[in-house]
Amino acid sequence: MKFLYYIGFILLILAFFAGAADVVPRNFARGGGSGFVSAFDLIYAIWPGKLVVAQIHIERLSPVLWNPILTGLLAFPAWLLLGLPGGLLAWFNRPNKELTPEIAESIRRQEESFLLYDKLAAEAKEAGFGEDEKYQGPNLETHDSIDFNNINSDPELLNEPFDPEHLADNSRNGEER
To answer: Are 129 and 135 in contact (CB under 8 A)?
Structure first.
């Protein structure tokens, strides 16, 4: 199983390089290039002689194998042809894919914390709180607020002397006044 994992990982690395090589021909194209470069074009750009020799050998075995099957397969981008099987091999054959009880408990707690808001919202609906606008904001009716219009009528504020010149004096810089 580890062998297949490493093969998948190597295929993923090759897919990364194929994706990087896919960008080069598009940048050098006169029209700017668009879309993707097929695996056939990429292999032909890297090893033109070997691709022709491979075509001759495969057509000698069976002409049907080369023309509709392999040419259709090589029409896809190389990063996809390498990355898809590489990703599947690496994912399904990864070592230590069984969960330990500690990891399973950690995942369960994390899932609980993600679902906490939904649970609290359901409990709030059951308690009678709806989605009306009056339930959306804080209830300020029960809180005391400062009445700035009648500030001189507050007995606690009347005991404090108000000296605007004292506030403007910055020479003390926070010292006791």
So the answer is: yes
148: its two tokens = 């700035």
Amino acid at 32: G
* Tokens matching residue 139: 């209830």
Neighbouring C-alpha atoms within 13 Å toward the C-beta of 121: 7
Pairwise CA distance, residues 8 & 2, whole Å: 10
pTM for this prediction? 0.52
CA distance 115 to 123: 13
DSSP 112-150: HHHTHHHHHHHHHHHTT--SSGGGTS---TTS----STT
Q: Sign (positive/negative) of CA torsion 47, 49, 52, 54?
A: negative
Give Cα separations from 52 to 10, 39, 113, 143, 154 (angstroms). Answer: 26, 14, 59, 85, 97
Q: Which amino acid is at 170?
A: N
- The tens digit of pLDDT for each residue in 17-32 reads 998 888 776 666 555 5
